[in-house]
Amino acid sequence: MEDLGRDSKLILAEDGEKVNRGDLTLTIHSLKRCRQRGIRESDLKLIMLYGSKIRKPGGAWEYFVAKKDKGRIIGYLKSIIQRMDKLAGKAVVVDGYGSTIITAYHRNN
What we know:
alpha+beta, 2 domains, 4-stranded antiparallel beta sheet, 3 helices, elongated, disordered N terminus
């Protein structure tokens, strides 16, 4: 396996056809196009998470960020930033599996 760069953290699969990064697999073609167009792996994830999607021929999906998505996403992220400001100093304790909340409290630091 070959490391494809310090920013991408992608690993080239031994078969040479696909790149697998846990939950996201890129073809060599898509990796080349992303590099040519200055699109980062994190950009792909944001587009897929927050963008719109339409069905393409052959059953594929196209994800994209339209102007309407941009305003909606920025508004959503601003609300998260405001909420995070209010959550500073708060804590949650969960069980060893991370699935059951035991308590929540204000930290003293």
